[in-house]
Amino acid sequence: MWGDRTLSTSTVRVDESVVVLRVRGGVDVATAPVLREALEAARADVVVVDLTGVDFFTSWGIEPLVQSHDRLLDRAGALHLVVTRQIRRVLSSVGLHHVLQMHGSAEAALAAVAEADEWG
């Protein structure tokens, strides 16, 4: 039933400038505010959002991700997403594959962060 989903998040600090935010559950109208709050609380220059534990993702999840991306970009930071095929499809359907950095695994995302840091 609509709105019966739950969403949980946990944060792991990789180093002083990188945080991994793990998200589990479903993202819909009822849980998008939980995602938004978790993104706002992830205080780091680079935030890697691992969405591989998300089993349901609606367009309500897009706004918190874009807002976080914009906020980090304004501070010369970066948002990296670890996504499933379903979530990549949702984000790509609105053109965000051109804007958001998406990866297939947390390891790939952290490698991209390390590589960007080398060039940074």
From TrEMBL:
InterPro entries: STAS_dom, STAS_dom_sf
Organism, as annotated: Actinosynnema mirum (strain ATCC 29888 / DSM 43827 / JCM 3225 / NBRC 14064 / NCIMB 13271 / NRRL B-12336 / IMRU 3971 / 101)
One Pfam family from the record: STAS
Database matches in PANTHER family: ANTI-SIGMA FACTOR ANTAGONIST TM_1081-RELATED, ANTI-SIGMA FACTOR ANTAGONIST TM_1081-RELATED-RELATED
Identification of the protein by name: Anti-sigma-factor antagonist
Domain STAS, chain residue ranges per copy: 8-113
SUPFAM superfamilies reported in the protein's UniProt record: SpoIIaa-like
One of the record's GO molecular function terms: anti-sigma factor antagonist activity
Record's signal peptide: none
Superkingdom classification of source: Bacteria
